[in-house]
Amino acid sequence: PDLGLTIPAKLASCMACRKPLLVSITGEGARAAAESGGALVSPACDAAALAENLRILAAETPAARAAMGDKAYAYYETHYRREALLHELEAFIL
User: Fold this and answer.
1) Residue 67: what are its φ and ψ, rounded to 5°?
2) Is there a contact between 31 and 11 (Cβ–Cβ < 8 Å)?
3) Which pLDDT band, with edges at 50, 70 and 90, does 40 fall under?
4) Integer Cα distance of 22 and 51 in angstroms
5) Phi, psi angles (nearest 5°) of residue 40
6) Which of 20, 35, 86, 90 could join 68 in a cystine, given CB atoms 3.0 to 4.6 angstroms apart?
7) According to DSSP H, which parts of the chain are helical?
8) Helix pair 62-79, 27-36: axis angle to 10 deg
């Protein structure tokens, strides 16, 4: 259960690549990926849902996939860049 409370660092790294994400995860990682608007999210260990999301992503136009990548990158910029994190930490401390 504790693993669901964390967001894997690789999720932020993938968002920084400005590509649409195909994510199979639960918990906070799933929430962040879905909230970004740049990912298709399926529950961890749900192969059928992952396969369906892969079919959906493959059927998207290049422009739609690029737009998803842009959304993922925008989420990364807002939530995971070092400067943004330091501002949040500073606000929390003060």
Assistant:
1) -65, -40
2) no
3) very high
4) 10
5) -105, 125
6) 20
7) 9-16, 27-36, 47-59, 62-79, 82-93
8) 120
Distance CA 76, CA 59 (A): 25
CA 11 to chain centre: 6
Task: Enter the tokens of residue 2.
Answer: 């504790």
36, 32, 33: which is closest to 75 by C-alpha? 36
Minimal CA–CA distance to 29: which of 45, 43, 48? 43
**What is d(CA 69, CA 38) in angstroms, rounded to the nearest whole number?**
6
Tokens 């999720």 sit at which residue?
Answer: 11
How is residue 9 written in tokens? 């660092």
Residue 3 has what DSSP assignment?
Answer: G
CA–CA dist 11, 37 (Å, integer): 13
Query: Tokens 């992952």 belong to which residue?
Result: 50
